[in-house]
Amino acid sequence: MFAANSALAKSSKEARLTSGAYNGNYWTSIKDKEKLDYLSGFMDALNVVDSFNEDSKRLKLLKGGFTYGQIKDYADKFYSKKKNRPIPLAYVIFGFAPNALSGELSESAEDSVVDKMLEEMKSGSIQPQETSE
Q1: What span, in angstroms and rounded, lies between the C-alpha atoms of 36 and 69?
Q2: Exposed, middle or buried by CB within 10 Å (0-12, 13-18, 19+), for 76?
Q3: What is the per-residue pLDDT for 65?
Q4: Which DSSP string corresponds to the chain?
Q5: For the chain, what are the domain ranges?
Q6: At residue 48, does pLDDT exceed 70?
């Protein structure tokens, strides 16, 4: 079961994964070039997978005109709030970033969604995990 206080209070080296996916603790621990490399590799892999599904939301993000730099800058801003760091990167890349960059997500709406996700973490449905990195 998820222990909210201890998991959310862990240092960035200890809780770089949430439900097996990299999160903001990982993101804030790497350099800008590594962030762009991560985004490039992540998006390239998804482009191949999604090329078989024209209705894919991920493919639409790639075609939406957002640059890796814009997504990186958004993720940097998002994770500058320590409370957001347990949120997995995939949620930021495909959920928060495209909606915020297109003007469809206000900062107050973003905070509301984050608060809901953090509540789900406390209930155990999304779990930060320790890593040996």
Answers
A1: 7
A2: middle
A3: 77
A4: ---HHHHHHS-TTT--EETTEEBHHHHTTS-HHHHHHHHHHHHHHHHHHHTT-TT-HHHHHHHTT--HHHHHHHHHHHHTSGGGTTSBHHHIIIIIHHHHHTT-S-HHHHHHHHHHHHHHHHHTSS-EE----
A5: 23-125
A6: yes
Dihedral (CA of 28, 70, 44, 125) sign: positive
Residue 98 tokens read as 């495209």
pTM over 0.85: no
- Residue 103 confidence (pLDDT): 87
Q: Which residue in 30, 32, 26, 31 sits closest to 12, CA to CA?
A: 26
- pLDDT at site 116: 92
The answer to whether residue 20 scores a pLDDT higher than 50 is yes
| Amino acid type, 83 | K
